[in-house]
Amino acid sequence: MTLERQFNDEVNRISALPPKPPVPIPVRRQLWMHYKQAIYGDYAQSKVGNVDLGHYKKQGDIEIKQGGWGDLKGMSKEMAMEKYIELAKSIR
What we know:
The protein is mainly α. It contains five helices and no strands.
């Protein structure tokens, strides 16, 4: 299975998780940051925009979209995917 396929499978699995029991905010933040880095590359305000965070927004943790992504500057798409997969697999 390709790295991109594994990444997409984990994105779909995480997206389908019910909001309860909730994934801790620090883990969600890491997932979001690595997802954005894998899809869009290095952070830029124009890439964040008015992102719809679905149930995250409903849970009041919109701060997920603020900060952190910029810390991954220079990380390759492949490394971001690998980190996302690693984090996602820790949520079982």
